[in-house]
Specification:
Blueprint: H1 3-20, H2 36-41, E1 51-63, E2 66-73, E3 76-83, H3 84-87, H4 92-97, E4 103-112, E5 118-129, H5 145-150, H6 152-158, H7 160-182, E6 186-187, E7 193-194, E8 206-209, E9 214-218, H8 223-232, E10 236-244, E11 256-265, H9 269-288, E12 292-295, E13 298-301, E14 307-310, H10 311-317, H11 328-337, H12 348-360, E15 368-371, E16 393-398, E17 401-408, H13 413-428, H14 439-446, E18 452-458, H15 459-466
Parallel strand pairs: 3-5, 6-10, 14-15
Antiparallel strand pairs: 1-2, 1-4, 2-3, 4-5, 7-9, 8-9, 10-11, 11-18, 12-13, 15-16, 16-17, 17-18
């Protein structure tokens, strides 16, 4: 039997023995009337008050006939003082049955020790939950990064900083939500499962619906259902929800991640860029109280206005003229010279995108809008009236990462069908990331969609950058991992 199994058995025996003593180690009710933070905040007012607190035991320090326990609830840590003089024979229960990790309820008066620590002098106590596995101390903690992620609940139990990180993430998302709602955007929910995976270039996950006897895709984007709502008459809509892309993982990528998308009728991409700057300024200042964020060897400054840079110009600055490199063959040759793997299924646009991600995007450190993408790379964006080979699109770039994508939405059903047809041919030829023909969306466009602008951003990647974390998995509670075996 392993040491873990030994500990589990010892603790299980304690739980069983408590039952023999007539004590339920897993009761359903408590008498808690104060949190730890309330006791500490209102200490001066509690001199004649009996406080009932609950929490997880984080430390036990016995000293003969007295014992100090540190307990932790969501609001902080508090020291408890147990003495044989006050508790009589019940005091022995602490030594016999209680371990680090257990949840306890205690009641008593509050005082300050000679060391100046606010402490509860326990007059009565009971077990709330007997933990069968040992919680490691914060000092030793969890060393292995994979183990931290796999047992995230344990890491959170011992790390106040980690709990605060996820609380900060929640505050950040709430700030974004409030800004959109205050600007009259309606929050909606759209299906996760659908017959077509559209709105982005990505390889989808596939599942099966037993009752309907059909295969369905997990959504890779929120875009097409939200634009259907513009057809329906809503003018400002947004959604924050999970999307799924069956592709590579890295410090910046997850296969399941949280996406924000919103769509704004009667606006174009120029108005949208100004709005995005205001949204970021609001959320960053409200949540972090700064526009400057350290990342690796840089300070990323989100102060507005952000620089606006042209797609073709960046290629030319890197010695690549896209009017010369304009075929799959010469782009493939260039890509191979840059040590990109040969993509037999990749067409011209795929090679352009891969070269951009290899030599251009990593050098875009300070926040900027990347503008005027080739039409061939943007099947859902409206063409520029000045140059039909370009679209009214922008990407937000910072720290060498894409942080958002927006454009004036294509609403011409004939043109959208032609773009989908090109994408479908690429998909049929083996490009698993090319977009699918979506007849239902085309039918919706035929009923008429107003001119509109739309934007999407991955919440996880954005917060990963802003929080100064080392990996996108650090800001997701329970990211997908390989099987432990």
């Amino acid at each position: 039997m392993s040491s873990i199994d030994d500990i589990k058995q010892i603790r299980q025996n304690k739980a069983d023995d408590l039952r023999k003593e007539g004590i339920n180690p897993y009761p359903s009710r408590t008498k808690r009337n104060m949190t730890v933070s309330q006791i500490k905040s209102y200490f001066s007012m509690l001199k004649n008050t009996l406080a009932d607190v609950t929490g997880r035991i984080m430390a036990i320090r016995p000293h003969g006939k007295i014992t100090f326990l540190d307990i932790q609830d969501e609001t902080g840590q508090l020291q408890l003082f147990f003495s044989y003089t006050d508790l009589g024979e019940k005091y022995d229960l602490i030594e016999r049955y209680y371990d680090i990790g257990d949840f306890i309820e205690a009641s008593g008066g509050v005082f300050i020790t000679k060391a100046g620590e606010i402490t509860l002098k326990v007059e009565n106590f009971t077990m709330l939950t007997k933990a069968l596995r040992a919680i490691p101390s914060e000092f030793y903690g969890l060393k292995d990064e994979e183990e931290k992620i796999r047992r995230r609940y344990v890491e959170l139990a011992i790390s106040q900083d980690k709990r605060n990180l996820f609380r900060k993430r929640s505050e950040f998302v709430s700030s974004i939500r409030r800004f959109l709602q205050n600007n009259n955007f309606l929050e909606v929910e759209t299906p996760i499962l659908g017959p077509v995976a559209g709105g982005a270039e990505a390889n989808p996950f596939i599942t099966h619906h037993d009752t309907l006897a059909i295969d369905l895709f997990l959504r890779i984007s929120l875009e097409l259902p939200l634009k259907r709502l513009l057809v329906a008459g809503y003018e400002k809509v947004f959604e924050i929800g999970k999307v799924f892309r069956n592709e590579g993982m890295s410090k910046q990528h997850l296969q399941e991640f949280s996406e924000l998308e919103f769509y704004w009728a009667y606006a174009d991409y120029q108005q949208l860029m100004n709005f995005i700057e205001s949204l970021f300024a609001h959320a960053l200042m409200e949540t972090f109280h700064t526009f400057q964020f350290p990342y690796e060897d840089h300070i990323i400054d989100f102060s507005t206005p952000w620089k606006r840079v042209d797609y073709d110009t960046l290629f030319k600055e890197n010695g690549i003229d896209l009017t010369i490199y304009n075929s799959k063959e010469n782009l493939r040759e260039l890509g191979l010279s840059l040590d990109l793997c040969d993509d037999l299924n990749g067409d011209k646009n795929r090679w352009i995108d891969r070269i951009y991600k290899k030599i251009i995007r990593p050098n875009l450190i300070q926040p900027c809008f990347l503008l005027n993408h080739p039409t061939i790379l943007s099947p859902l964006a409206k063409q520029s009236p000045e140059d039909p080979d370009k679209v009214e699109r922008f990407q937000i770039l910072a720290a060498g990462m894409e942080l958002g994508n927006g454009f004036s939405e294509l609403n011409d059903p004939k043109e959208q069908r032609a773009r989908f047809s090109i994408q479908q041919k690429l998909r049929d030829s083996g490009d698993s990331e090319a977009q699918m023909m979506d007849e239902d969306f085309l039918e919706a466009l035929e009923y008429g969609m107003p001119p509109a602008a739309g934007f999407g951003t991955g919440i996880d990647r954005l917060f990963f950058l802003l929080s100064g974390s080392n990996n996108i998995r650090d800001v997701v509670f329970f990211p997908t991992l390989k099987d432990e075996d």
